[in-house]
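Its record is quoted verbatim for completeness.
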Amino acid sequence: MVHNKLPKTPLPRIYLISSGQENHNKETSLLRNLNLIPGSLCCMVQIREKQLNAKRLLTLALKAREIGLPEGTRLLVNERVDIALAARLDGVHLPEKSCFPYQLRPLAPNMIFGCSVHSQESALIAEKSGADYLLFGPIFDTPSKRIYGTPQGLEQLGKLCRATTLPIFAIGGITPENGALCMAEGAYGIAGLSIFQDTFRFVKTLEQFYHIVTK
């Protein structure tokens, strides 16, 4: 087993994922929303922009890093350790079929490495490979996650939470109405993509989730 070195301070419990439609210009929903995060509410933020080339992704990551985010916020990028290092981000998130955290940790020993998983088997492999947290789902039906098949459901979430000691963020159709059900099954926090894209409701949505995860 690879022994992962967990962060000295607890991870935030709300996990924001960028739209997948960002660009490197100033007017992006990601940068607008990062500027709106209340100063007392730290989050996990994943820059997940697979459509951008390295130059444009780095430009976006640097602009995100320049924003005065709340203390404790963790800014990560999807899969690209080189971009994370160049932009001085806090970590890297790895898809289920990506390389293992222990293979990348020597390059960035002080960074957080998280993994997306869609089964208990994958979760245990990620844990043994040195992941610091897991993103598990989809829990409920949601258009952006239908490519992964039938929703996992709350029962599978609960089983996974009991099978690993890692923090698990539930993802997939999570709303302020059902988020508490995920926490009741043992989830460490809740994650979302589409629900955070409405800039007008962004702060209210964050506050609703914050109330749920801190109960």
